[in-house]
Amino acid sequence: MHELRPKADSEKITINLGYVDLGHVDLLVRDGFYSNRTDFIRTAIRNQLERHREASERSVVRKQLDLGISHFTRERLEAVRAAGETLDIRVLGLATIAPDVPAELARATIASLTVLGAFHASPAVKAALAERIA
């Protein structure tokens, strides 16, 4: 059985940064405070996340978000359909739907999908769930 797994434990993002700010980052890298631009950006993001940690934790509880990686297999979704139920998926982290899940099964079993982070699924499943993604 082949399951969709992330290639790495991170997601690539792109940011636009002003020239002066970028110059300051490069200066700090050149002076040895950081090993490279990515190291600086990761450190800055982690510092901001720590600064707002308590508010974030309260929001996770209030919004009933699953924290981490949530993987939905064909077998799991077929069991949900057999039970006559649907899922309201709320994830902070990574949500994946196995590549062998047909779009029709996803549409029949997933009532709503909220992902703060990354969502990995086949293009057909993403299209089938497009109107249910918050």
From TrEMBL:
Pfam families: RHH_8. It comes from the Bacteria. GO terms for biological process: regulation of DNA-templated transcription. CDD domains: RHH_NikR_HicB-like. Signal peptide: none annotated. This is CopG family transcripitonal regulator. It comes from Sphingomonas sanxanigenens DSM 19645 = NX02.
